[in-house]
Amino acid sequence: MDPANQLIARWDSAPHHREVATFPYHKHTPLGVEPCGPITAVEQA
Fold it and tell me: How many Å apart are CA 14 and CA 5, to the nearest integer?
């Protein structure tokens, strides 16, 4: 979220966008839903 509480990006793995090539992984942006791979909060070595 930005300072005005507007969405910048949100990564998601809920199985509700079956049309995305990376289902169930996807990213929500102001432009809509985009494919993306799984993400982690842990840095990979």
Answer: 22
Is residue 13 a contact partner of residue 24, using CB atoms and an 8 Å limit? Answer: yes
Regions of the chain with pLDDT less than 50: none
Do 36 and 11 touch, CB atoms closer than 8 A? yes
Q: How far apart are CA 28 and CA 5, in angstroms?
A: 15
Q: Residue holding tokens 């993400």?
A: 39
Q: What is the pTM for the complete model shown? A: 0.74
**Exposed, middle or buried by CB within 10 Å (0-12, 13-18, 19+), for 15?**
exposed
